[in-house]
Amino acid sequence: MAWLQNNLSTVIVAAVLVLAVALALFFTVRSRKKGGSCSCGCGGCPYSGGCKKR
After folding, report:
1. Is the pTM value of this prediction over 0.85?
2. 8: pLDDT strictly greater than 80
3. pLDDT class for 35, splitting at 50, 70, 90?
4. Alpha helix positions (H), the chain
5. Is 5 strand, coil or helix?
6. C-alpha angle 23-44-47 in degrees, rounded to nearest 5
7. Which of 37, 19, 21, 20 is nearest to 29 (CA)?
8. Distance CA 8, CA 30 (A)
9. Residue 35 Rama label (left phi>0; alpha psi -120 to 50; beta)
10. By Cβ atoms counted within 10 A, which residue in 4, 14, 43, 51 is the most buried?
11. CA distance linking residue 14 with residue 32, whole number of Å
12. Predicted confidence (pLDDT) at residue 17 exceeds the cutoff of 90
């Protein structure tokens, strides 16, 4: 228990960082599934063949 009290701030910061990365990945995957992975035109995009056209 003393270890946790001594390192509580480090544990909280690490948990916040892990949560931020998980949320970023979640929203990126969700955006790609909807077909909105970028906001630019598809003309010069190397991934234009794999995009879902609207």
Report:
1. no
2. yes
3. low
4. 2-6, 8-34
5. helix
6. 45
7. 37
8. 33
9. left
10. 51
11. 27
12. yes
